[in-house]
Sequence to fold (67 residues):
Amino acid sequence: MSEVKDMLLEAVRRRAEREAARLAGDFVRAAAEEKEAILAALEFELWFAQGCRECQNGTSAGFPPES
Fold:
């Protein structure tokens, strides 16, 4: 993977992980009626970060790594 793509994926992954951490804190303090929406956003951010990690490792969607 090109260096620029790798740097971009790393930045996006880190942002998603920071957002997931913030949402986890929000979830603990949230009112019951807000928890479902926060949990959905948290799950999305974790999924997004994992996808970035898989792209960086060349394992995303079962595709072989770039040569």
